[in-house]
Structures are given as structure tokens and as C-alpha cells.
Amino acid sequence: MHKKHTLDSGLRIITEKLESTKAVTVLVLAGAGSRYETKDINGISHFLEHMFFKGAKKYKNTKEVSETIDSIGGEFNAFTGKEYAGYYVKVASDHLETAMDVLADMLVHARFDPKEIDKERGVILEEYHMYQDTPMYQIGWDFERLMFGDQPLGWDQIGLPAFIKSVKQKQFRDYKKKLYTPDNIVLTISGDIDHKEGKELAEKYFTFNKGKKAYDFKSLEPLKKEERVYLHEKKTEQAHVIVGAKSHPETHTDHWTEKLLGIVLGGNMSSRMFLSVREAKGLCYYISTHSDNFIDAGIFSTGAGVQLGRIDEAITGILEEYEKIRLKKIPEEELQKAKNFMKGKMILSLEDSEQYAHLLGKYELLHNKTLSPQAIMKEIDKVTTEDIHRVAKDLLKPENMKVGVIGPYDNKERFKKLLG
User: Fold this and answer.
1) What CATH number has the domain bearing residue 295?
2) Measured distance CA(303)–CA(402) in Å, rounded
3) Of 155, 189, 205, which closes a domain?
4) Cβ atoms of residues 67 and 75 within 8 Å
């Protein structure tokens, strides 16, 4: 059972002892994702994530940081999402103090050396180009832009080349000071750990000054003009397409119903989309349905990589599966299969102490409460076939549908007609 403690600074610490492992993950989540950006600093959250590894007070450069973790066989990484950024170190539990020391040093005492900033610009520009050259990834960002428009939730986390090339040390320092405050950070320690030791090490190393985050992100604004098609004309050997609609925020009462609907439609190799669009019609290699939910918004969508000459068939095939599940209630055994799949995947993922820490930390940071795997499973078990039908009828109306496409096409009207 996890335990929670709040330090005098306001930093929240959550520990979860896992009996089946000798590893431990120390994860820091900060409410400093790309939704906190304005147009002039779009990309700073992600760039800052890179800069935290470039040296601080005790570990003065990337080499010292990486050698310290490598020398004990540990793993370390970071990520930037829309609503939060995360930093973790995973080690054998007898090296817990080293993990805490490294993470705390880089987050509390980061220097943002101008020379390191200049070197990292090239790295991030190459990352930007990698995504531009990988349509399978880029199509997701294109679709978010279609759904949310020209506002932070619709922007790529990586930002634009002009900002990457021009950002200065002061901008990093200002952003860190405003958002990397103890009240806006959750420290989660999961694995072979006891609460007392975790609390004592956090007090020793995470010596943040007291402070409150300077601002929250702006609520999502309705689009003045709703577009139904996003076409990214590009010479490719395969077309990449997403078909979907706006859905519910993460706190919505139908959240777990929506997740199960996604599994039934395209969550695995025995799902409806896979068996129909891929297996029966041979239209694509990959196809999957996702429910992506934020604090105040969501997207329900199906993405696929399809043959260039059969993209119309693929889009029509996805829409047909949406319509079938919208019009007819699914069998009880199909729902039960989806529940078993979802719970089984969750159990497998939570064998990893990093995944466990992420689950606990995310809900504490975004919703001021922890959510245990057991509580999630109870919510999954409550969902009925009537719930699935009701949510499908609500979300998957034909008039709600939008489509994003990357491929060698120049006619948006072609895809608009397919939507009806």
C-alpha cells in the first residue's frame, strides 16, 4: 500500500513497496508540460528536459551524470508531455541514495550553461527532423493540431526550429523558477523501498526553497472555425491516416468505458479494426485505436498506415466499424475479453517499478489524489455493454468525425467527401 508525505517545502512524496523486485525507481513529475507554453516559447518544456542532464552543482556535466548511473547498472531517462514532464532513475535498491542524489542535483541546482545550450540546439533540431521524417509519429501531432487548433494543446511538444535556435539561458531560468516549484512537483519512489527511508532521503537531497508555481495553463478554447480534414502533402511510400473525434477529459465518469471501447475497436490483434481493415481487407500493416485524455479534453481515434492507392477504402473501413459499434450493442463476451485484456496488460506493466511510480505520481500531480491499480480494476469491472453502447453512440457520430492524412495527395475535398 502506498504512503504519502508532504515536506515543509510543499514537495509531495509517495512511496510504494513492491515485494517482487529488488529494483527501485525514483520518479519526479513536474506540472511543466507544453500546455504551459506561449507561442514565443513553444518548445521550452522539452528543451529544458534535455538541459537538466547537462550538469549542475555536484555532477557538473553530462559525462558525470551518465557515468554515475552507468557505474551502478542503472537506467535514467526523461519525457515531456502536454501537461507534465518526468525524470526518473531506476537502480538496484541498494543504490537508492545515488539515484536520489543525481536526480535532486540536476533538478534543484541545474546551471543551464550557455555553451551546453548551444550544443544541445543541434541535438534537438535533429530530433525535430527525425519526427518530420517519421510520418507514423508526426500524424498524431498533425491530428492534435486539427482537433485543438493553434493553442498549446494543439502544438507539438518539440517546438519550432526558430525557437530551438534562439532560446537563451535566462528563459530556461525563468521557466524553471515559475514552474519547478515544490508545490508543483511530485516525487514517487516505487519498488524495494520503505516509506521512512524514502522520506529521509527526500528531505536530505530535494532541498527546494518554498515557493508556489507562478501560473496554470489556460483552459482549452473552442475553435472559431472547425476544420474536418488535415492534409499534410508529402511524398511517402505509405499513407498515414487518423480518423477520430473529440472525446471526454480524464476525470469524466465514462473514462474507463471509453478506454474499453478503444480496446474493443482497435486495442489488440483480435480487435474489430485489426480483423476487418487489416486481416479481411488487407488494407494496412499497423492499425490501432486510442483514447487520449487530458484534464479538460480528449481524442478518440484510430490510426493506420495504408497502401497509397487504397486510402479511401481504409478510411471508409474505419468509419464502417465506428458505425457498427454505434448502432449495435456488443456481446457480453466481447466486453469481458476487453476487460481481461486491459487488466492483464496493466498487471504486466506494473511489474516495472517505473510504470508503477508513473501511475501513482501522475494522478497525485494532476488530480491531487492517488489511484491504485485495485481501484482502477474495480472501475473496469463496473462497465457494462450498455455503457459501451451509450458512449459509442455519443462519441462516434458521423458528424463528429475528422481525418488527418500524410501522403502524396493534394485534394482535401476528396477526404471531406469520405466523411460525409
Assistant:
1) 3.30.830.10
2) 12
3) 205
4) no
Give me the active site residues, please: 49
The DSSP code for 155 is: S
Question: Rounded to two decimals, what is the model's pTM?
Answer: 0.95
Contact of 305 with 134, CB cutoff 8 Å: no
pLDDT tens digits, 378-398: 999 999 999 999 999 999 999
The grid cell for 392 is 459509442
Q: Specify whether 187 is located in the same domain as 235.
A: no
| pLDDT the model gives residue 20 | 85
Q: Which domain holds residue 342?
A: 229-419
Q: What is the pairing mode between strands 185-191 and 23-30?
A: antiparallel
Cα–Cα distance, 38 to 40 (Å, whole number): 6
Looking at residue 137, the DSSP 8-state letter turns out to be H
The pLDDT of residue 355: 95
Q: pLDDT (tens digit, 9 = 90+) per residue, 44-83?
A: 999 999 999 999 999 999 999 999 999 999 999 999 999 9
CA-only gyration radius of the chain, Å: 23
Cα distance between residue 336 and residue 326, in whole Å: 18
CB 342 within 8 A of CB 263: yes
Which neighbouring-strand residues pair with 92? 23
Tell which residue, 100, 267, 288, has the closest CA to residue 198: 100
DSSP annotation of 280 reads I
Residues of the chain with pLDDT > 70, as a percent, come to: 100
